[in-house]
Amino acid sequence: MKDPVVLITGALTGIGRATALAFANEGGRIVASGRHDAEGHELVAELRKLGAEAEFLRSDVRHEDEVRSLVGQTVARFGRLDVGVNTAGTEGKPGPVTAQSAESYAATFDTNVLGTLLSMKHELRVMLPQGSGSIVNVSSTYGRTGGAGASVYAASKHAVEGLTKSAALEAAGSGVRVNVVAPGPVETGMLNRFAGTDERKAGLITTVPLKRVAAPEEIAQTIVFLSSDKASFITGASFHVDGGKTAQ
User: Fold this and answer.
1) pTM of the entire structure?
2) Is there a contact between 29 and 1 (Cβ–Cβ < 8 Å)?
3) Which of 61, 90, 98, 215 is deepest in the core (most CB within 10 A)?
4) In total, how many domains does the chain have?
5) Is residue 105 annotated as a catalytic residue, yes or no?
6) Where in the sequence is the domain holding 58, given as residue range(s)?
7) Residue 191 domain flag
8) List 109, 153, 194, 239, catalytic entry
């Protein structure tokens, strides 16, 4: 795929930002989306310095009108959509099940699950008639293993895994592929907020056989691979990029 048009939600920090930079280095034409204008324009300036065609479009994936507009503006700008990377997410409210509420559930699921669903819906609206495209969602190892203190977050990532597999089967005959990347602990603001303390973060690292957290760039490289023609026979798959965590 030459000069793919890539739309990335949650592109302003962490894995999303690293993915935008990785695609820029591969010659992608990039639409970076998020909720903060200053960070968005800063990222686009960096992408353009790398030689990429890039635009920032503000969007909140919890709202369908905004997602529909985001995809529509992407196609209006570049004429097509080759890759959708759905990284927008939140850790929600960490804590035991007994501390959760309808509000904390909705706040987490609206971003992590509804946001992924709406993003795929409107990405597929373009890709299916094209007869080509690749969507990569972002889950977590918690989507397979669960985790104490992460009940709602883990449940939301289980849901992302299920959404991905169902969408992949629906789109398989059309030439569109849908996969999910499930990272282990990654050095991001989300990890630091979830851990809360250096001591708890150190405890999370001890659960990883490689005895370290991942860099966002390591997750981004897996996303770039799954989006490429090198992965043309892969769909409906969940790739665990977790330092061996789920092999235990």
Assistant:
1) 0.95
2) no
3) 61
4) 1
5) no
6) 5-236
7) yes
8) 153
